[in-house]
Amino acid sequence: MSVGYQRFESVDLTGTSDSYAKLNNNPQFHEVDRLFEDRLRQFIDKNGGYKDLNLPKFYDRGRIDKKKQHDDDQIYIGLQVYSVPNLQRPLFKEVIPEKLSEFKSSSKGDSFGPGWATFWFRITFKISQSWIDAKQQILFEWDCGNEGLIYSKEGVPQQALTGGGERTEFILPESWYIDGEEHVFYLEMACNGMSGGVNGGSRFSLSKADLVLPNVEARALHYDFWILSDAARELSATSWQKHKARNLCNEIMNAFDPNDEATINKCRFLAKSFLGKDIDSAKVYDKKVKKIDVYAVGNCHIDTAWLWPFAETKRKVVRSWTSQINLMERYPEYKFVASQAQQFQWLKKYHPEIFSKVKAKISETQFFPIGGSWVENDTNLPSGESLSRQFLLGQRFFLDNFGFKSDTYWLPDTFGYSSQIPQLCRLADMPTFLTQKLSWNNINRFPNTTFNWVAIDGSQVLCHMPPDNTYTASADFGDVKRSLAQHTNLGTDQSGLLLYGKGDGGGGPTPEMLEKLRRCRGLTNTVDSDLPVVQVGPSIEEFYENILKTTNNGKTLPSWKGELYLEYHRGTYTTQAEVKKFMRSTEFLLHDLEYLATLASVQYPDDYSYPLDTLHEIWENTCLCQFHDVLPGSSIEMVYKDEVKPMLRKNLQKLGNLIEEIFDIFKEKQQVKQGSTSNGNVVCINSLPFPRSGLFEISNERYASLSLDIKNIQTGYKNDKNLVYLESASDSYHIMKPIANRIKNGAQISYNEKDKTYILSNSKLKATINSNGVITSLVDLANGEREVISLSDSGRNTRGGNQFVVFDDQPLNFPAWDTELYSLDKYKYLENPTKIEIVSEGPLRASLKVKHSIGAESWISTTISLDAVNDEAENDSGVSFLVFENEVEWHETYKFLKVEFPVDINSDFASYETQFGLTKRATHFNTSWEAAKFEVCSHKFADYSDFNYGVSILNDSKYGFSIHGNLMRLSLLRSPKSPDATADMGHHEFKYALYPHKGSLGVDTVRAGYIFNDRLSSLKKDESIFTQGLDSDIFPQLVEITGDSNLILSNVKRGEDDEGISSVETNLQKKFVGSKTIILRVYESLGGKSKGFINVDLPIEKVFKVNLLEEELEEIDVVEGKDGKNGFDITLRGFEIASYRVVFSN
Ligand SMILES: [Zn+2]
């Protein structure tokens, strides 16, 4: 007897109906997978022709939109509306009750506008006893295609409604109707979509204002079927689970009867055979699993400004986060992260009651503040100090308000990440980093998902890029699947983060996303499949901790050194030039103010108090404007015109005024010292941390008071200004005085009639400029008469330096953001100047002015100057540069203006200044990775050097650069028409300079970058100029750094935790009661371990090395310094950023 025979015996082959039949009279067809899969869409399609024959028929058990008509009406809903005048955005308390008399009757079908207008609705309603008796949720459904926020009658925000079919339902709190009486609530309507998307003419039509009694089970079946049918479509074709899911879906559809509501339960029973029985609660996540594959965390990326202004963002925050708090109440497993201290601060100010709710949800570990920076900032353009302040402000806000710091620098959407970010992160106490933006690369695919990202100094952060390549996932089956399937280094890490939730314009996760995730997890709990195990519940912190646990503390992970260059959005280094210039000026003047205020407050504590609160305000505004769609130039006109430019202008004015106040103190002290006598000399303040010399502009009136022996007779200079040559005094490099004698070897200019060229020269350089204003030769006289310009036929530009080029600039996408590789092939050189003239003949400054027409209404006027150098000066560094000052009238369309310098240098790499260091990039296009960097970001200078010689290009406000072959190219102005059609139109002023130097890149270039950007000497009323003189005992050199000159003392400020310099209430402890402290920031600028000494003018009690948050890392010994002063030794790694706290003895 065979085994098989036995089996058949047990199955029963007797031929009865419940056994295997002998005859087959009912043939079955072989499944046609595609048809049975396509059919599934019909079951939950709300808009299809079969919707009344399928599940949508049952979504509502009742729906009412009728107004009250009779006194005894049992159920009704009524609307009244108040139209806020002048596009204002008043708070609840400014409208109710004050404006109640101005509310007018309104109803479904009404339309509202224009774009950016605000309306307040008063909603009255009553629920009938039969609905109350159903003992289930009752919904208010509202859709006007724009954003709204529901307020209780007491004025407490409840939940946002975003329209367009998204987030249109609000579960009415039971207490609002349970008594069967009429109740009232309010709704604030903002006439803009989630993604802005409006113009002045926009109107929004109210399509829904209903009371709904939903069929909860029918809606649950909708989610069941959604995930099941996704499984049928997306599970691996070779898995039995895919086919089983499809069959099950078909079975559900067959079991469903549109005339029998009870069949819904039967359908759900079938669904649960595949999804498990726990999908209706958080219990589904309790099942023990061997391994969590996907960690799902909610977020709501609120761009702080973009296609809407800051003013709207303040409302987006309260809208988005109240919705999320609501979700947390309904879904206990739910965790949500929100970044940007600025947004928390707005919430705290405008909606303190919601801020308290957020804090409660933080303590219940459902709401997680994250990010550690003031906003989700750009990291290409802000200075090193700006990035430091993003963290100082951000982390201290978190500490002050929540009692903890963020571990993670959260920048999902920023346009590329500079090579110093890992170091700055570690110094801000953030060991982990998150972005996904590199998935947008338009040339190369970034090779790692989880990796160690290493800064130029060697510091590392643990970086994860969510494999789903989005931070706004819908939490679909496919999102869960891709969160592992698209992980690019599964060999070393086997987990993925899924960031879900409506985003960009805020919003965040919707209930349906949490319902879908429960079902995805239910599926993996119930049937084996290739769907990864998703968990809702662990925090981002736990996610990163798990990676460290499974990778031997990250040691087995791949690493990536240097910048995370985004191969996209390369136009953002240039777009909105004026904002970028304001930012550079702000950064420099903030440096100056902090240095001067530190000095004055320490030196003259009775006369001057450090303005910490005002500085915070200015820094907060500055950091706000560094948001990743603001400073890069990708916001709408309204953002720049109404908010950013006025804010930055006001900042600059404030900075000027505050600096003037400090100067007044020094002037007064000097006056007291010397009485009415004046030494007749002019003195200028140098706020930079090294000695310098050079020309300063001075009014004729002040010039007249100078003693004769120091005046050089300048020919042809501007009428109302004169020039004076100053250099740092020997006892303090912060005080600049006129040199004792006149300049001997001045600058000069001559015209050569024969070949129609101009020769501009001083003792260091000789430039030949042709009739087109182009430098055809630049000879370095001091270094063997070396020619700097290359007119080689093998180069792209054979014309010469300062050649303007206008490129066609028609990117494939995102005009304000993008410029494409192909644009480099279509261009025109500017030729035939409309005017060329000598405007200054020397001996202090020799200048030639050239004007070119660009288009019908556009022109550029360039003044090319060479200044005298004082060869005999004690501090003469031998630095001389050719300066190009430009005025442009710019009215172009999709054109990109750049300037080119072909130079006689050949090296594989060029250096571009970045925050506190350099980023080196190839000057060739060997690989697609190098070609992708055809346009890159640079700060104050870019340098192209070989072993013997180099050329630096300095700039005062530009960031776009490229150096390839023998060509150095600086990007000047763009003209994208979207999203701001007026971007960069109008007048511009900027300057750049060419600095040739012997040897490779050195400290002279680093210093020249600072000198060229000095704003102090150009403050509006000559504030930095002291005509009565200034002595070093009145204006002492508080701090001086000696030793390796590549160590730069970049910033000096007072300690944040000093007593008596702030009147703002804070939970942070004042650590230095009774003492004064200063913070010094030093960085190694060129890439090599270096030693130095910090000499301090006042008696030091203690010195600590601190991090960017001014938290102590280690104590440092105080030793004797020069001239009887004291100080301390420092040693820095190459490109290290080091901060020190000096505590002064009392
Ligand atoms: Zn964004």
TrEMBL record:
Q: Which Pfam families match?
A: Alpha-mann_mid (PF09261), Ams1-like_1st (PF22907), Glyco_hydro38C2 (PF17677), Glyco_hydro_38C (PF07748), Glyco_hydro_38N (PF01074)
The record's catalysed reaction(s) read:
Hydrolysis of terminal, non-reducing alpha-D-mannose residues in alpha-D-mannosides
Cellular component per GO, a single term: fungal-type vacuole membrane
Q: What Enzyme Commission number(s) does the record list for this chain?
A: 3.2.1.24
What protein does this entry describe?
Alpha-mannosidase
What does the sequence similarity comment in the record state about its family? Answer: Belongs to the glycosyl hydrolase 38 family.
* Record's function text: Degrades free oligosaccharides in the vacuole.
- Ranges for domain Glycoside hydrolase family 38 central come to 567-647
Recite the UniProt keywords alphabetically: Glycosidase, Hydrolase, Metal-binding
Return the InterPro entries for the record. Ams1-like_N, Gal_mutarotase_sf_dom, GH38_C, Glyco_hydro/deAcase_b/a-brl, Glyco_hydro_38_C, Glyco_hydro_38_cen, Glyco_hydro_38_cen_sf, Glyco_hydro_38_N
- Asked whether the UniProt record includes Metal-binding among its keywords, one would answer yes
Q: Is Glycosyltransferase found in the keyword set?
A: no
A GO biological process of this protein is: cellular response to nitrogen starvation
Which SMART domains does its entry note? Alpha-mann_mid (SM00872)
Example GO molecular function? metal ion binding
